[in-house]
Amino acid sequence: MNTEEKSINQEKQQKINRTLVLRLLRQEKLASRADIAKLSGLQRATITNIVKELMDLGIVVEDGILSGNKGRRSIGIRMNGGNFGVAGVMVTREYFGVSLIGLSGEIHETKYFKLEETDSVYESIQRIKKETYHMMAAQKDFRTLAVGFAVPGPYKIDGDEIIFITNLVGWDGIPISSLLQEGFDVPIYIENDANAGAFAQLWNYEKTLAKKDMAYIVAGQGIGCGIISNGVLLKGALGIAGEIGHTTIDHCGPRCECGNYGCLEMYCSMLVLKKNIRKRLKNGENSYVREEYERTGNLSQQLLKEAIKKQDIVVKEEFDKMCEYLAVGIINIINQLNPELVIIGDALAEIGGEYMLNKIKKKIQNRVRPIIWENLQVELNEIPENPILVGAAAIAAQKIFENPAEFIEGATKK
Ligand SMILES: [Zn+2]
Asked: Are 375 and 233 in the same domain?
């Protein structure tokens, strides 16, 4: 190995070590240099150097005294999430959300905004950028170093366009990353919503997962899935991996707009649930939701949640069907990817809660091999803030962890 190769290797190693230290500090919240050395397996001197470098940048600070083994006392180190952070932005078909999140994951501020139906996609993007920028600029002593955007559809990685979105007219084929980046003086990152949600779950569970293989099921207006394989987002050749909503449930079923027949999303989603309930109300069936539906013309999430709790026959029967279909979709994912953890989130999970979870778990248990079931956890989303929003921010934070100096120096110049 020549000298140049050696120094490149050393630089690479330093980068890996630094990222590891930052990730550990985020997980531990507060730790001594000795704790970090022990957890990372790195030399004490290496940790001392890295911590000094990160303190010089300002993203890590000393905070109080920790008492350890045998009465030994040491200085606590933590991320400076009060002064440095990222913005996470999520865009749905009807609204967008912006969250300012400290580097260690604490939420400073979250706001949601309605998107106007009459606005063009370009007007919507301008509005999303304006509100995000305003929130960033209004923060005192808090520097946003990067922005993560979660968009409602797979984003083509090596191009600059969203290549496949259902039910969202106008967003196909636009140069989304240059449109979003324009006007921001910090880097932006784009990910599709299910992947962002999965990434948020990985951050949440990073300490406890053994193999870091998991799937996050977004059971909302459509059905999506973000997959983490060995700690890394699985994207596929074009970034379309995890389109569970377009896997076949009935190969003789009706044609889906994706081109396939009998896709899961045609049988199971919040939209399908509402459509089926409305049909039964129209047929004159008696239901807990009838009065409010007739008064407001709306089947709100809260109303459906109450109806399930009250065991309303119409809503429960229709919701049970959603659970059946969703379980089939999840079983397909389990047999393909063998995750150690499956998390179900979004609107259907929010209205169904434990009732839904138990139904789905039972079905999975009956239909997969015992060894798979014994090594599988199935849970509901537990992140209180929207995981897609948190994940968008986490993806941006991860980039900062890989090379903090680049972001801090970049931001200081402004
Ligand atoms: Zn389809």
From this structure: yes
